[in-house]
Each structure stands twice: as structure tokens, then as C-alpha cells.
Design brief:
- Among the domains are: about 205-215 and about 230-340, Leucine-rich repeat, LRR (right-handed beta-alpha superhelix); about 355-670, Rhopdopsin 7-helix transmembrane proteins (Up-down Bundle).
- About 40% of the residues lie in helices and about 10% in strands.
- It is built from twelve helices and 19 strands.
- The protein has a 15-stranded parallel beta sheet, covered by helices on one side. Strands 3-5 form a two-stranded parallel ribbon.
- Helix 3 links the parallel strand 18 (about 320) and strand 19 (about 335-340).
- Helix 5 (about 390-425) runs antiparallel to helix 7 (about 440-470) and helix 7 packs parallel to helix 9.
- The termini are far apart.
Length: about 675
């Protein structure tokens, strides 16, 4: 199209150009007057533009249209009046637009449509009336639009639909009524829409679905009823919708899926039922489309009663979204299943493996008794000696007591999981949804995270303290009992905030549901798996997985590195301090010390290094651990650290106690040995 056929005035003008302007030529085909400040359209303003095919007047301030505003535009095909202040449409405003195929009146202030306002638009194919102020549709208001293919009425205030609101629209293929206030659907309201392929009734206030309201739309392929208040799906509600391929029923109040609810939907491929109140699915609810359904969405439902064969017969299923890992095990190997197989639980029990259950009870008994003995024994030791050595012992006592308290929190977590497993034994699948979203699951996950973080931090402080005491025995800059308690107190506050932040975010979202539009941690950060552990050990990314990776993997890896460096410093320092001893004894002590320190590092490495490797491997996609290794790592390796710590670190603490003064064979500090060597020797002997 040449420049002479296209004219643009989209420059924020407030005065409408007159016919006397030189640019107005009789052969003009496109005129763009968008984004100006035009308030009115004078009568016959376009009278000489007999060749005009496209007129764009959107984003102006037009309030009224004169009856003859578009007179003589017999060739006009596209008219855009969107984003204006138009309140009413004169009855014959479009009288001469017999060639018009596209009309956009969206985002205006239109409240009512006159009975014959579209009478002459016999060629119109697309009509936009979305986001206006329309409250009521008159009967037969669209009756003359026999060529109409697409009608958009979304985002209005329509409450009721006349029985013949869409009469004679036999060519209509797409109808959008979403985002209105429609409460009921009259019987046969869509009866004349024999060519309709897409019908959007989402986010209205429809509470009941009459049997004959949607039935008999033989050409319908997509139907959206999401965001309504439908509580029951009557039998044969979708009768004769044999071409329907996608049905959206999410965000309603459906409780039960009856056997005949989806009768005749033999071609259905996508079914969205997420975020309802569904508790029961009848055995034959999906039978009519068992061989055609490819995608099924059931998230946000509390499924309690269903038959496994209902899902087993979905032979063409490629994608399943739900809150039940049990369903993923039922459907078997498909392209995508959320939340995936739960490595810990089965359809019957929260802890699907008996040997994991036995190991957890052993860890609980061992960790509880060991840590309790450590706390009591450390608190019972009273020493009024105010020497420097006693201050060191107090710091060690404080740290080891704090370590025992941290490890006891892991015992609390394990007891919660084991108790819930006993409570739901043999019927876990019925309560899976409620358990994963329960406050108890969130609390258990936060406690487990708090235990792991505080335990590693305490081990790190122990390593730093021992490294300072052994590498710099005469230094006055070391941890005192007071400074140690301050550091521990600050650390506990930080770990509590980090551990319970997802829980607090979830509580805030649930209380201020409509004010908080987004929650980084999702609905159940700790409830992704049945055991309520937020460990990023798989390829699936749930809301907040980056936070879990940073706190569980990043911080613990940093803590372990500091622990390893601390013990290396200890080893080097004590090796140097034995320089004055005889070579044989020194070699024996070095080997003994190396074994002790190597064992310390090795035990910490065994607890956290596999977790770090699996998390990094899963994230990079290089290696995903088998299910048994995943379960063993999460439910045995991490908790076993809490069971070993009270024994291991108490023994090692005893090994590093200052030897008896009477023992002259003890290794001496480097400074002491150097003083001895500087002493003048008796040469007379």
C-alpha cells in the first residue's frame, strides 16, 4: 500500500482534522487517528472517504457518536473504537457499514445495546464488546449478524442471558462470556450456535449447570467453566458434545465426580479439575474418554475415595497433575506426572518401607538417650576453678550442650513422622493431601531444617575453638564462655528465621489471601514429599527450591569446609609441637592423631557430602539418585548424624583434654620446646 493510501494522525491532537486538509484524498484506504484526544465525531466527517477500508480511533476521548458519524463509508472493513469513553451507540450509527468485517468496541463505557444497533452489519465476522459496562443483553440483539464468527463479551457486568440472546448466529465459532456475573444459564440459550467451537463461561457465578444448557453443541471443541460456583455435575450435563476436546472445570466447588458426569465426551483430550473440593471419584467417571484423554489436572483437591482402576484405564494419558504421589504410581510411566513418585510413601503408608521405619526408631532411641545423657552430664559438672583451662572447658561444655540440643530437635522431627505414619497406617492415600498441607507437616519440616543448620554451625564453632586453642595455645584472643553464648544466641535467631520463613509466608498468604497475590514458597514448601523435608535431591523444581538449595546445600557445604580446615590446622599444629620428642614416639602419635582427625572429617563427610553430590547432580541433570539411595540419604544419613554426635564428640573431647601434669611424655607446644632449646646446656657433663 502506498503512502498516499495510508494516513496517520496519531500524535495526540485534540482537534479533529477537517475535510479541507490536503491529505484527505478520495482514494485513502487506511486512516489512523489513535492516541489522540478526540472528544466527538462530527456528522458526515468521513463522507468523502468512499475508498476507506481501515479506520483506527482507539485510545481517544470520544464520548458521543453522532448518528451519521460513519456515513458513506461503504467500503470500510475494519473499525476500532476501543479505549474511548463512548456511553451509548445511536440506533443507526453503523447503517452504511455494510462491508464491515471487524468492529472493536472494547474498553468503553457502553451500558446497553439498542435493539437494532447492529442491523446493517451483515458482513461482520469479529465483534469485540469486552470490558465495557454492559449489564443486560436484549433479546435478538445480535440476530442480524448472520456472518459473525467471533463474539467477545468478557469482563462485563452481565447477570442474566435472555433465552434468545444468540439467536440466528449460526456461523458463530467462538463465544467469550468470561468474567461476567452470570448466575444461571437458560435452557437452550446456545441452541442456534450449531457451528460453535469455543465457549468460554469462566469466572462467572454459575452455581448449577442445567442438563440442556450446553448439550447438543455438536461442533464444540473447547469449553471453559472454570472459576464458577458449580457444586454438582448432573448426569448427562455434557450430552452429545462428541467433538469436545478440552474441558476446563477448575476453581469450582465440585465434591463428587459421578459415573455419568462426562457421558458422551468420547473425544476429550484435556480435562482440568484442579482446585475444586473433590473428595470422591466414581469408578466409571472417566470411562467415556478412557482411550482419548491425554492430560488430566487434579491439583488442589482432597482426594479420599477413588478406585485405582479409574486411572489405570487411561491408556493414552501423557500428563497428570495432582497432589497425590500415589496416583503417579498408579498411572505408571507417563511423560509427566506431578508431584512424581514419592520415594518415602506408598498408597497405604507414609513410610512405605519397613526397614526405614525400623532404622528411624533405632535412631530415635539412640539420639534421644545419647543427647539427653550429654546434656545432663555436662550440666552436672561443676568446677569453681577460674583458671584459663577451666574457661576453655566451659566453652567446650557450652558448645557440646548446644550440639545435643540441636540434635534433640531432629528426634522431635522423627517422632512426628513416625507417629503420623502409625496414625495413617494402611490408609495414607486418603489423607495424603491434608497431611502435606497441615501445620504439623510444616512444623516438622522447619524443625528438621533448624536441627540440621544449628548442628552443623555448632560443629563449625567446635572446630574453630579447638583450632585456636591448639594452634595458638598462649594467645589471649579466643572464645570466652560469654562470647560463645552470644554467638550461639544470634545463630539460633538466624536459623529459626531461615527455617520458619516459609511457614510464616504460608500463614500470611492464607490469612490475607486476596491481598497477597504471590507467595514464593507456594502452598506447601515443606510438604512436597510425605516426610516434609525440603531437600533439592531431584530434578523436579517446586516453589522455593532455590531457597532450599541455598540453605540446605550451600550453607552446610560452607560449614563442612570450615570444619575440615579447622581439623587440618589442628593436625599441623600438633605435628609441629611434637618436634622435641623422639622420632618413633612422634611417628606413632602422628599416626594416631591422623586417624582420629581423619575419622572426624570422614564422619561429617559421610553425612553431608552425599547430599551435596546428589543435589548438584540433580540440578545439573548429570545424575539422579535411585529411589533407594534417595530414601537412605534423606531418612538415614542426615538423622544418623544426630545419633552419632553425642557419642563421637564426647569421646573426641576427652581425647583432646589436657594430659596429667605428671605425664612427662605428653607432646609440648612449639613455644615451650623452643624455650628448652634456647636454654644453656651443662657442658661439664
Amino acid at each position: 500500500m502506498s503512502a498516499a493510501n495510508c494516513l496517520e494522525f496519531s500524535t495526540w491532537n485534540s482537534v479533529f482534522p477537517t475535510k479541507d486538509d490536503d491529505n484527505f484524498e478520495s482514494n485513502l484506504e487506511t486512516l489512523d487517528l489513535s492516541f489522540n484526544q478526540i472528544g466527538t465525531l462530527p456528522a458526515n466527517v468521513f463522507a468523502d472517504l468512499t475508498a476507506l477500508e481501515g479506520l483506527d480511533l482507539n485510545f481517544n476521548q470520544i464520548v458521543t457518536l453522532s448518528a451519521n458519524a460513519f456515513a458513506d463509508l461503504t467500503a470500510l472493513k475494519i473499525l476500532d473504537l476501543s479505549y474511548n469513553q463512548i456511553g451509548t451507540l445511536p440506533a443507526n450509527v453503523f447503517a452504511d457499514l455494510t462491508a464491515l468485517t471487524f468492529l472493536d468496541l472494547s474498553h468503553t463505557q457502553i451500558v446497553t445495546l439498542a435493539a437494532n444497533v447492529f442491523a446493517d452489519l451483515t458482513a461482520l465476522k469479529i465483534l469485540y464488546l469486552s470490558r465495557t459496562q454492559i449489564v443486560t443483553l436484549l433479546a435478538n440483539v445480535f440476530a442480524d449478524l448472520t456472518a459473525l464468527n467471533k463474539l467477545y463479551l468478557s469482563g462485563n457486568q452481565i447477570v442474566t442471558l435472555p433465552a434468545n440472546a444468540f439467536a440466528h448466529l449460526t456461523a458463530l465459532e467462538s463465544l467469550d462470556l468470561s468474567g461476567n456475573q452470570i448466575v444461571t444459564l437458560p435452557a437452550n440459550v446456545f441452541a442456534d450456535l450449531t457451528a460453535l467451537e469455543e465457549l468460554d463461561l469462566g469466572y462467572n457465578k454459575i452455581s448449577t449447570l442445567p442438563i440442556n444448557a450446553i448439550a447438543n453443541l455438536a461442533a464444540l471443541e473447547e469449553l471453559n467453566l472454570s472459576g464458577n460456583k458449580i457444586g454438582t455435575l448432573p448426569a448427562n450435563a455434557f450430552a452429545d458434545l462428541t467433538a469436545l476436546e478440552e474441558l476446563k472445570l477448575s476453581a469450582n466447588q465440585i465434591v463428587t465426580l459421578s459415573a455419568n458426569a462426562f457421558a458422551d465426551l468420547t473425544a476429550l483430550k484435556i480435562l482440568s479439575l484442579n482446585y475444586n473440593d473433590i473428595t470422591t471419584i466414581d469408578r466409571n467417571a472417566f470411562s467415556s474418554f478412557a482411550s482419548s484423554l491425554s492430560k488430566l489436572w487434579l491439583e488442589g483437591n482432597n482426594l479420599q475415595h477413588y478406585n485405582s482402576s479409574t486411572f489405570e484405564e487411561l491408556t493414552n494419558l501423557t500428563e497428570l497433575r495432582s497432589d497425590s504421589s500415589c496416583l503417579c504410581s498408579i498411572v505408571g510411566d507417563i511423560d509427566y506426572c506431578y508431584p512424581g513418585l514419592d520415594p518415602f510413601a506408598s498408597c497405604e503408608d507414609l513410610l512405605g518401607s519397613e526397614y526405614i521405619r525400623v532404622l528411624m526408631w533405632i535412631i530415635v532411641i539412640s539420639a534421644f538417650s545419647g543427647n539427653l545423657v550429654v546434656i545432663i552430664s555436662r550440666q552436672c559438672k561443676k568446677d569453681n576453678n577460674k583458671s584459663n583451662d577451666n574457661e576453655i572447658n566451659k566453652v567446650q561444655t557450652t558448645l557440646i550442650t548446644n550440639l545435643a540440643v540441636s540434635d534433640l530437635l531432629m528426634v522431635v522431627y522423627l517422632i512426628i513422622i513416625l507417629s503420623v505414619d502409625m496414625h495413617y497406617r494402611g490408609r495414607y492415600a486418603t489423607f495424603e493431601w491434608g497431611w502435606k498441607r497441615s501445620p504439623l507437616c510444616s512444623f516438622a519440616g522447619a524443625i528438621a531444617t533448624l536441627s540440621g543448620q544449628s548442628s552443623v554451625f555448632t560443629l563449625m564453632l567446635l572446630s574453630i575453638d579447638r583450632a585456636i586453642n591448639i594452634a595458638y595455645p598462649f594467645s589471649t584472643k579466643r572464645l570466652s564462655c560469654k562470647s560463645c553464648r552470644i554467638i550461639i544466641g544470634i545463630a539460633w535467631v538466624c536459623w529459626i528465621v531461615l527455617s520458619f520463613l516459609p511457614v510464616v509466608a504460608n500463614v500470611i498468604t492464607s490469612i490475607w489471601y486476596y491481598e497477597v497475590t504471590w507467595n514464593y514458597f507456594g502452598e506447601n514448601y515443606y510438604g512436597v514429599k510425605s516426610v516434609c523435608l525440603a531437600l533439592p535431591l531431584s530434578k523436579s523444581h517446586w516453589p522455593g527450591w532455590e531457597y532450599a538449595f541455598a540453605t540446605c546445600i550451600g550453607l552446610n557445604s560452607l560449614g563442612f569446609i570450615i570444619i575440615a580446615v579447622g581439623y587440618i590446622i589442628i593436625f599441623v599444629s600438633i605435628k609441629r609441637s611434637s618436634a622435641g620428642a623422639n622420632r618413633k614416639r612422634r611417628r606413632k602419635e602422628d599416626i594416631k592423631l591422623a586417624v582420629k582427625i581423619g575419622f572426624l572429617i570422614f564422619t561429617d563427610l559421610c553425612c553431608w557430602f552425599p547430599i551435596v553430590l546428589m543435589a548438584i547432580g540433580a540440578e545439573l541433570g548429570g545424575w539422579v539418585p535411585p529411589v533407594k539411595i534417595y530414601v537412605l540419604s534423606a531418612m538415614f544419613i542426615i538423622p544418623i548424624n544426630s545419633s552419632i554426635n553425642p557419642y563421637l564428640y564426647t569421646i573426641i573431647d576427652c581425647c583432646f583434654k589436657k594430659p596429667n601434669v605428671a605425664n612427662t611424655n605428653r607432646p609440648r607446644p612449639v613455644a615451650f620446646i623452643q624455650l628448652q632449646e634456647m636454654r644453656p646446656r651443662n657442658t661439664d657433663r
